[in-house]
Amino acid sequence: MGEEISNKQILLKDYVNGFPKESDMELKISSMKLKVPEDSNTVLVKNLYLSCDPYMRPRMKKTEGSYTDSFIPGSPIVGFGVAKVVDSAHPKFKKDELVWGITGWEEYSVIKAPETLFKIHDTDVPLSYYTGILGMPGITAYGGFYELCSPKKGETVYVSAASGAVGQLVGQFAKLVGCYVVGSAGSKEKVELLKNKFGFDEAFNYKEEQDLSAALKRYFPDGIDINFENVGGKMLDAVLLNMRIHGRIAVCGMISQYNLEQNEGVHNLFCLISKRLRMQGFLAVDYFPLYKKFVEMVTPHIKEGKVKYVEDIAEGIESAPGALVGLFSGRNVGKQVVLVARE
């Protein structure tokens, strides 16, 4: 029947309005057996790392028609993670294999749709990287920048929220192509990280700028060819004014809007016409079919030190609520990860 163990879980108490708080989540201890029914096609995993991502905030409120379902109050939060297979009734997964994909915010999870999991073959890099540079944020940066924006050597690139899990990669990918890259972030420490660690040509603290459009004009006197947009709102409005003709805007996220009861409007959309811009939103899953191609491209760069990655690791599943909430005040530096267990 399988050994019975206790299982710590992080539950969402109820739907959230405004900025999320740690008290919107609670720790619960349940019990479960370390065995799945033989005919269930499910996989039981032990979670090693959990990923904290901005897209999780909209899932904490009741939404309809969104690309992701709302979390269920009273149930464990779900998100991307790295895990080890404990038991499997699925022919493609075997005990002790390492995987990444959607899992529960708990010590052990039963994965009912294991075909969505990716197997981890290369363990010469930190396993936590599969929540970030080699996971969903990595394929997001790769697909949104290379596939959607079609960058060319010598072009100018602006990345908002540039020190985050996706932004730090986009900037480095742009440098690999031979672009001029500027990023913005919310602290002096993060600005220094962009320039000294990730190799951005320039970076600025958006909180110190009275006029965002003037700031962009300062760094891009001849305009922006590619904008990788993670912020939205006033930032996107300023970007539109500073784009070059035939520029491309990849809309990855709108973190400035996630905690607002009423979203801000964007006022400079006429620039899409006057400058013949292409602005397109996208999801990481759009590029999951390219995952193998992406890994083959980026892994050598990681091992050679040409692409660097910074993580902010919180220890213990009990720290997960604070780690997730911290994303929205800029507390984290780099990719926010929660270490649940060391294999």
User: The biggest beta sheet, please?
Assistant: 7 strands, mixed
Query: How many helices does DSSP assign?
Result: 8
Low-confidence stretches: none
* Rough outline: globular
Structural features, described:
The chain is α/β, with parallel strands linked by helices. Helix content is 22%, strand content 27%. The protein is built from eight helices and 15 strands. Strands 3, 4, 5, 6, 7, 14 and 15 form a seven-stranded mixed beta sheet that branches. Strand 14, helix 8 and strand 15 (335-339) form a beta-alpha-beta unit. The model has no long low-confidence stretch (mean pLDDT 95). Keywords: Oxidoreductase. Pfam families: ADH_N_2 (PF16884), ADH_zinc_N (PF00107).
Could you outline the blueprint of secondary structure elements for this entry?
Layout: E1 4-12, E2 25-33, E3 43-51, E4 78-88, E5 98-104, E6 108-111, E7 118-119, H1 136-149, E8 156-159, H2 167-177, E9 180-185, H3 188-196, E10 202-205, H4 212-219, E11 224-229, H5 233-242, E12 243-251, H6 270-274, E13 278-281, H7 291-303, E14 311-315, H8 320-326, E15 335-339
Helix pairs in contact: 1-2, 4-5
Organism: Solanum bulbocastanum (Wild potato)
Keywords: Oxidoreductase
Protein name: Enoyl reductase (ER) domain-containing protein
